[in-house]
Amino acid sequence: MTLESPDENKKISLELGPFQGITDVYFRNCFQETFTGIDRFYTPFFSGIHTANSKNLKTEEIDPECNNIKVLTPQILSNEADEIIRFATQCHLMGYEEINLNMGCPYPQVARKKRGAGLLPFAEHTEQMLNKLTNQLPLSFSIKCRLGYYNKTEIDYLIPLFNSIPLSSLIVHARLGKQMYTGRPDHDKYSEIESLIQSKKVYNGDIFAPEDITILLSKFDGTHTWMLGRGLLADPFLASDIKGMTVSLSSEEKKDIVFHFIQNLYLKRRKARRDNPALIGRMKELWSYLHLSFSESETAWRLIRKSKNFEEYESAVHRIFDEMQWVGHGYQGSLTTAVET
Ligand SMILES: Cc1cc2nc3c(=O)[nH]c(=O)nc-3n(C[C@H](O)[C@H](O)[C@H](O)COP(=O)(O)O)c2cc1C
């Protein structure tokens, strides 16, 4: 299905959410070589930027020479203004035009240190940090947050703070930190805060099929930019499907394109990691979503999951593409297994 009005499509801008361990430089480059529809990519978060010439930023992950991507925004996980300024300055020198602050990571080892979504209950700390950033950043600044860590009222205190600085966009993953990735996003709360946000708004959470965007467009009339996540990892055609660019491809054609993508990614990672078998773990992380878009998804996942070396991995991939059908929009069907918290 595509959106009904072609005018609607034009208004839609799509971003790909960062996934630590999955949407690395190889994924982003291979994706952009093979698929269309994403207008902005983000790096998974960087941290530990302790110096003005940080070795954490001397990697292919952020080197513009290695990132053959139209629009890429580097992300930082931090609760310290000085570290954010150091990161921004180094990104600016590399030619980047924007950085993003992660206020959404829910993992306890991060949140316990008042970082990621763990910063959301601390409006005072956030205010001091944002005040210190004023006039100190040489490039644009955006924030990705959740509605709160424990409670959705946390964002009510943060929005005036976010409005007090020149944000290029506020990306809201409409869940709580304590939900991790379970339960449903809270559309009612997003609707309530949407008109209060003065910067560009980006909605994130459970966009798994073009129909989801149609529903969200009818609910949120001030939002025109949408961040895709697990839905796109399960079906890399999701962005182009939403924009109505892939309707003429048959399922067999789509399967061939996905095969080319996954092989290209695997070979690029093998070359970069000098055949280190640990990269099978990275491929498995992507497959933990991608398998959902195949006709016998459980069998596909079992084959991949149990592979222990390159030979077994390659044979699993060949069996999947030889024996199964590409169905697409896999994450949509997986929702019935989500647990409400
Ligand atoms: C394994 C994993 C790693 C993630 N890494 C990051 C990250 O580095 N930075 C970030 O802002 N979000 C990260 N996210 C969150 C996603 O970008 C996205 O916000 C989330 O999956 C919600 O969108 P969805 O419901 O469309 O999947 C991660 C999520 C998962 C499951």
Blueprint of the fold:
Layout: H1 6-11, E1 13-16, H2 25-34, E2 40-42, E3 72-73, E4 75-76, H3 81-94, E5 98-103, H4 108-111, H5 123-133, E6 140-148, H6 154-163, E7 169-176, H7 187-194, E8 200-204, H8 210-219, E9 225-228, H9 230-234, H10 238-242, H11 251-272, H12 279-290, H13 297-305, H14 310-323, H15 330-334
Parallel strand pairs: 1-2, 1-9, 2-3, 4-5, 5-6, 6-7, 7-8, 8-9
Helix pairs in contact: 2-11, 3-5, 5-6
The protein binds flavin mononucleotide.
Give me the strand/helix succession. Answer: HEHEEEHEHHEHEHEHEHHHHHHH
Residue windows where pLDDT falls under 50 for at least 5 positions:
1-10, 336-341
What level of helicity do the residues show? 40-55%
Terminal CA distance reads: 31 Å
Mass-distribution shape: globular
Radius of gyration: 20 Å
Tally the helices: 15
Decide which structural class fits the backbone: alpha/beta
Query: In CATH, what is the class of the largest domain?
Result: Alpha Beta
| Structure ligands | flavin mononucleotide
Beta percentage is: 5-15%
Structure description:
By secondary structure, this protein is an alpha/beta fold. Helix content is 43%, strand content 13%. It has helices at residues 6-11, 25-34, 81-94, 108-111, 123-133, 154-163, 187-194, 210-219, 230-234, 238-242, 251-272, 279-290, 297-305, 310-323, 330-334, and strands at 13-16, 40-42, 72-73, 75-76, 98-103, 140-148, 169-176, 200-204, 225-228. It has a 9-stranded parallel β-sheet with strand order 3-2-1-9-8-7-6-5-4. Strand 8, helix 8 and strand 9 (225-228) form a beta-alpha-beta unit. The chain is globular and about 55 Å long. Residues 1-10 and 336-341 have low confidence and may be disordered. The protein binds flavin mononucleotide (FMN). Residues 17-20, 44-45, 75, 102, 104, 144, 173, 181, 204-207, 228-231 line the site of flavin mononucleotide (FMN).
